[in-house]
Amino acid sequence: MSETQTNDAQGLSSQLPEGGFPPPEALAAAANAGPDTYERAAADRVGFWEDAARRLDWDQPWEQALDWSNPPFAKWFVGGKLNVAANCVDRHVDAGHGSQVAYHWIGEPGDTRTITYAQLKDEVCKTANALIELGVQSGDRVAIYLPMIPETIFTMLACARIGAVHMVVFGGFSPDALASRITDADAKVVVTADGGYRRGAPSGLKPNVDEALTKTDGVRSVLVVNRTGQDVEMTEGRDVWWSDLVERQSTEHTAEAFDAEHPLYIMYTSGTTAKPKGILHTSGGYLTQVSYTHWATFDLKPDTDVYWTAADVGWVTGHSYIVYGPLSNRATSVMYEGTPETPHRGRWWEIVQEYGVTILYTAPTTIRTFMKWGDDVPAGFDLSSLRLLGSVGEPINPEAWLWYHKNIGGGRCPIVDTWWQTETGGHMITPLPGVTKLVPGSAQHPFPGISAKVVDDEGNELADDSTGLLVLTEPWPSMLRTIWGDDDRYVDTYWSRFGKNVYFAGDGAKKDADGNIWLLGRVDDVMNVSGHRISTTEVESALVSHPTVAEAAVVGATDPTTGQGIVAFVILRGDAVDRGEELVKELRLHVRKEIGPIASPRQIMVVQELPKTRSGKIMRRLLRDVAENRELGDVTTLTDSSVMELISSKLPSSG
Ligand code: WT7
């Protein structure tokens, strides 16, 4: 069983032009990256990244582009010095673009702020001076626990400006999770807010910080942004209001140049063990790659585009493609605080219409939610300003791709399906919108200057049309440099399976006969049924291609006969009727038809919700626990832990 989502695509082949959707002619003619981009990178990989680095302002040029003498510890642009914040802000103001809008910020309750590059410079300088007054020095770690408000960006850039290392913790994390991250990073200062707006109500953040700080020592100051006006407790001598400290600071601050390898930030991500990994990114290489990929993958035209990454700044997508990539390219961005259904399900489309958004970047899970809400919602708005769409975070099933293409992109916008990770810092596998013929469901090709391969368990590169593991065979500028405080874990997790020169991504992948790479989900989510490898994603993709299904999650549950059995959890579309056993039978048949009898689920359960992390990833691990009648594992990272009780109650007593 080696077929993958291509089956699904074949099932939808009537909607696909031969060989894929070609780039729109006008876009291709004026695209930032053309076929020659691949050629240049292939001819001189490191030289290509040096050219990309020259798009930035360096206070001191590098002596050596790449030092890979001690793998897997890479150094990029050795000897070079730059200031990341000055590259994102000051240089645009100096070049006469101070009045250009950097962010159209939209609060969930409907309040708005427009921030130009000149204003951004003032705010970043004030925040930098405030952090200095709190005693923050170069190399110190600053924890940021804020909602989607401009102060989050001011604080990140202020840290970068003074050489402090920011550690943003997504506002949805619990006090425990915050405390463990503060302890691990040894942060001295926390920046938070009285609250933020989510789903129509102010949420508390400061109380979480207060609780977290009972579980960790070492934090000496808490800076509190005034956002909601909720009553919060302020601890004398430790806590200070943003309005008291930052507002009185000078807008003058001279940025100092830091080494290219100076730490920029830590972002925690979960691994296979309970302890989250602090992924460390540094300055010159990181900014080079996020800046270049943002410019090339999204074909960003700073004078005319209105760019929107609809993700939370608390994740790597936000760091690279709300903050550092767009600002380094002098983009005008939209930043939205709230959820897509507040106050109504058309909120995003209203924003696109009002601000004339031209480029939209979001996740498949959100796209499938919009599918569930129905075509009518986006159809009620003028989305004609859009010219390019992006997808990130998980494989996008062809059904969702085509829905996005038609209902949001009006059939005219290319979709770039970008594969990358917290660890990779920037895009790694993606189509280029002015070059690639788009194949729905596949991330297609390594970005220019990136070396990705599909290998077998021994690390041998596989022939086209076979399924294996994704590896990266050359270092890249925005790669993680280590796991904070744990070099051994860094080596073990990523650089041991196939030796110290090969990065093991943890994803299954297939290269098809045309050389397109299809990501098949984490390898721990790959099922083995009767000796056949089947990706959970593959079965999910088949299920959601059925007209009644909005979303599906599939797990491999231990089975005495077949090794693993496929258990599927599905959410029906709003207009579909749950016809009980009859529908389940129909869905099983549909999967047999789409993929083959081997992929037919042992069990299909219709549920109302799926357990998701706050970043929108389905927690298959918990579903596997349910499917195998086990005690539930750790549910602390779920958005809503009651979801699991609902699902468990649906389950017949044995699997
Ligand atoms: C994992 C990384 C990249 C920022 C957001 C997630 C999956 C990500 C894709 C894609 C298929 C994808 C992979 C990867 N993934 N993008 N376009 N197609 N899978 O970052 O939380 O570090 O997760 O997300 O499984 O390993 P992350």
UniProtKB/TrEMBL annotation:
AMP-binding enzyme C-terminal domain location: 538-617
UniProt binding sites for Mg(2+): 544, 546, 549
Enzyme kind, highest EC tier: ligase
Catalytic activity: acetate + ATP + CoA = acetyl-CoA + AMP + diphosphate
AMP-dependent synthetase/ligase domain boundaries: 95-476
Binding positions for CoA per the UniProt entry: 198-201, 317, 530, 592
Keywords: Acetylation, ATP-binding, Ligase, Magnesium, Metal-binding, Nucleotide-binding
Catalytic activity, EC: 6.2.1.1
Cofactor(s) for this UniProt protein: Mg(2+)
Composition skew (Polar residues), residue ranges: 1-15
Protein name as it appears in the record: Acetyl-coenzyme A synthetase
Taxonomic classification: Bacteria, Bacillati, Actinomycetota, Actinomycetes, Geodermatophilales
